[in-house]
Amino acid sequence: MALPPSDITPEAAKRMDRDSRQQDALLREVDDAYRQDQLTTFAKNHGLKLGIVVLAGLALFGGYLAWQSYREKGRDETSEEIVKAMDQIEAGNLATATTQLTAIEKKGSDGAVAVAKLSRAAVAMQQGRPADAARIYGEVAASGDTPQPYRDIALIRQVSVNYASMKPSEVVEKMKPLAKPGEPYFGSAGELLGAAYLDLGKPTLAGPLFAEIAKDENVPSSLRSRARQLAGLMGYDAIVDVDQTLKDMRKDEQQQQAAGAQ
User: Fold this and answer.
1) Closest-CA residue to 148 (of 104, 106, 184, 182)
2) Quick one: DSSP state of residue 114?
3) Cα distance between residue 65 and residue 113, in whole Å
């Protein structure tokens, strides 16, 4: 701050300094209010869109992650049948795939049954039957015989399908145990948890969570990009490596262009 002219009394200088600080505080309040208004508008106008993005990312190919884990083990006698069902899904023969997956559920091991059900739920989503998909995901999540990783991913997908009809507090209760750094599904569960915090009007909880997701290199780049934008909107710095961030952004853009060309 510049020194006051010599003809200004100490009392006047103090008053000017006080007025300056008050003005700075007022500007900060206006800026905070504007930021909060932006966030409120975003949550109001795009909260549902965010839910849809989460849903699309998690549900359209619902059996993929589970199948990857299952394939690496490769110990079940039904593995070849699962491969055939996956081929049918890839070829767009969803009815045939559903029949094959249902047969696997009747005779496979716990892991095979979980993969089959998760894949059948994904088929239901592709066929525009979200209620059936949510029911199947719920069966996997509630099954005590199903390995925990499958139960966790099933719960995340069930919540993503039912998000619009759930209370935000219910989403928080279900996702909070899974939305922790180091957990295998931190990014997916964290994105749903952050959206629920926004719906509850708690940006101070959502912002740091989105920032943490954006900084986690184990989270898919597309999810990190969304989290980074949301964190920035709420005033939280989510960039650790600028070069890597730019690289991720270019990768996301290329993926979007490739998807649009298909």
Assistant:
1) 184
2) H
3) 14
Domain final position from 116, 141, 165? 165
Cβ neighbours for 129, distance < 8 A, ≥ 6 positions apart: none
Residue 10, in any domain of the structure: no
Along the chain (262 residues), what's the average pLDDT of each consecutive run of 10 residues? 50 55 47 45 48 45 47 59 86 91 85 88 91 95 90 93 94 96 91 93 92 90 86 78 52 56 55
Residue 232 lies in a domain: yes
Structure tokens at 239: 């960039």
Residue 89, domain extent: 46-165
Buried b (16+ CB within 10 A) or exposed e, 131-167: ebbbebbbbbbebeebeeebbbbbbbbbbbbbbeebe
Q: Which DSSP string do the residues of 15-66 spell out, in sequence order?
A: HHHHHHHHHHHHHHHHHHHHHHHHHHHHHHHHHHHHHHHHHHHHHTTTTHHH
Three-point CA angle 128, 54, 142, nearest 5°: 75
